Amino acid sequence: MTIKRLVLIVSTLIAIGLATLSLVSSWQKPQFQSRLELYQTNISLQAQAWQPEDGDNLQPLRQAILEERPLENATKQYQDAKESVQTNIDKVQTQITQLSSPANITPPPKPIPQDTLDTGTSPEVKLQQLRQSLKQQQKLLAELDLRLGILQAQQGQQDAALKTWDEVQGLVKTDKPTISGEFIETATVLNGIWSEPARILPDAQQLIQKNLDGWFRYTALIQLYQLQQRPEPLAAIKAEQQEAAAQAVFKLTLIGIIPALAALIGTILLIFLFSQRLLKGKEALIAQNGDLVWSTPWDVETIIQVFVVGFFFMGQVFVPFLLLILPIPRPITDVRLQAVSVLVSYLLVAAGALFVMYLSIKRFFPLPRLWFKFQLRDNWFLWGLGGYCAALPIVVVVSLINQKLWQGQGGSNPLLQLALESQDFVALGIFFSTAAIAAPLFEEILFRGFLLPSLTRYIPVWGAILASSFLFAIAHLSLSEVLPLTALGMVLGVVYTRSRNLLAPMLLHSLWNSGTLLSLFLLGSSN
After folding, report:
1. In terms of Cα–Cα distance, which of 5, 219, 17, 45 is closest to 119?
2. How far apart are the first and last CA of the chain?
3. Whether 486 contacts 477, CB under 8 Å
4. What is the pTM of this model?
5. Does the N-terminal or the C-terminal CB of the chain have fewer CB atoms within 10 Å?
6. Is the confidence at residue 436, as pLDDT, over 80?
7. 3-state secondary structure 230-284
8. CA 483 to CA 410: how far, in whole Å?
9. Secondary structure of 472-516 in the HEC alphabet?
């Protein structure tokens, strides 16, 4: 055995171990989907207040966009979210108790710049991270209780609402890490204005405006102004609510109707393609180039070298270490700097991985035909657009099943959270450059352009599509995303093997990421 092969074997084992640890640690993190559902609920609540001037003519549109029982559905969403957060709090408290035992007590560590849990840190640092995480979870729980109480009050459940707000007020009496006193005061304000008889605190309006947003703020302010018998502010806030509701309806149309139409087209397309496959066999469109394999001049050792050295170590070791030693103030709080950091990190990883791939296959140049094919004069646009429509219903169904399996756990891509909470157009443009341009170019060259064809040397084309899709999903290092990304990867693989043009899966990938970013921005702008 050569030294190079021995180093490659050891590196592969290390990469597998580190990837496994990352996946296991993601199991304890909440899914981004849970937060996304709350944002969707909030914008739906805001839209339900819409009362168009031309009510009769626009009533069908209102019924098509808005839910039939928005308050009941929102209440259930917030109750489920509250239970999930409480479960996370209980888990974190158990871990804190275990780490706080006498055997684990040592002098306190220096402050750390981040609050994500790291499986490689010492018990002292983990304890500090857990306490910070506990404070964040308790703050989120207080925010959920404030909103849940308003939902209950609007449905005539005053007793339940008062009890919910009492839970927020009760946090100050416990030995838990303190939440913001303003949340407790806001709970007192809400408790007062929905009580019988009502009690109005001096700072009620300021607290509501500061600690509530969207539909919840409008509802609380309307209740307050009605009690205060202030007709002018009441009329102004109702007019503002109508304007916000109209905007929410427009955003819901973009978020829901357009993807729904694309998914409908995709469903029809899938039925057509599979029906044609049954009737025409290998002459069907979906069977085009299905059995045509690439002539692969390199072996499995080259494949492993590209992914272990070029992709994994570049992305998980070299680039993070390079950024760590740079004189950059941490933590990065400015959203534009965060966006630039994400883009630069991604470009460095992509450049490193592609350079390693080039060095690994350079000796096989010129490559046989079909390798890394880019052809502008082709039907790649139709394959990419059709693939996007077909991927929507497939991934949606898989995601619904995935949600049932993971129950809100399993972690998510942190870029999604940044895009959701960023309302800076410059930052959003940089995020878009990363997700909709850089990611499709790099990932399709690596996973569809290199990995999938390379695997056809050892397994059939359909097996190569499945294996490359699974590795594509695993590379994102979030357990909750493995099934949906595997499904998306399979559509990408089918589109590439049938079109034999990398521009087709790149377009599909770009459309997918662009649609996700647009939806996140619209949801975030309404919350």
Report:
1. 17
2. 60
3. no
4. 0.78
5. N
6. yes
7. CHHHHHHHHHHHHHHHHHHHHHHHHHHHHHHHHHHHHHHHHHHHHHHHHHHHHHC
8. 11
9. HHHCCCCHHHHHHHHHHHHHHHHHHHHHCCCHHHHHHHHHHHHHH
Question: Which whole-number Å values give the CA distances from 180 to 29, 135, 186, 424, in the listed order?
Answer: 24, 10, 10, 26
Q: φ and ψ at 30, to 5 degrees? A: -70, 150
SS3 401: helix
Buried b (16+ CB within 10 A) or exposed e, 322-355: eeeeeeeeeebeebeebbbbbbebbebbbebbbe
223 confidence band (pLDDT: 50, 70, 90): very high
- CB-based contacts of 114, cutoff 8 Å, min separation 6: 330, 331
Specify the higher pLDDT residue, 329 or 463.
463
Band the pLDDT of 105: cuts 50, 70, 90.
very low
Token readout for 382 is 């139709």
What pLDDT does residue 115 have? Answer: 38
Residue from 139, 51, 49, 42 nearest 525 by CA: 42
Contact predicate 37/228, CB 8 Å? no
Is the torsion defined by CA of 108, 112, 114, 117 positive or negative?
Answer: negative
Dihedral angle at the C-alpha atoms of 484, 489, 495, 499, nearest 10 degrees? 170
Say if CB 258 and CB 389 are below 8 A apart.
Answer: no
pLDDT score at 175: 44
Residue 31 has pLDDT above 80, yes or no: no
Place of tokens 């990065």: 332
CA distance 404 to 398: 10
pLDDT of residue 85: 81
Give the tokens for residue 247: 């905007």
What backbone phi and psi angles, to 5 degrees, belong to 444? Answer: -75, -35
- 230-238 contacts at long range (C-beta below 8 A, 24 or more positions apart): none
pLDDT at site 172: 53
Any idea what the Cα angle at residue 294 is, between residues 289 and 295, rounded to 5°?
145
Residues 6+ apart with CB under 8 A from 378: 499, 501, 503
Express each pLDDT in 163-207 by its tens digit: 999 888 766 544 444 556 778 888 999 999 998 888 888 889 999
**Which residue shows structure tokens 């096989």?**
364
Instruction: Please identify which residue in the block is written with the tokens 């309806």.
Output: 249
Alpha-carbon distance of 281 to 11, in angstroms, equals: 45
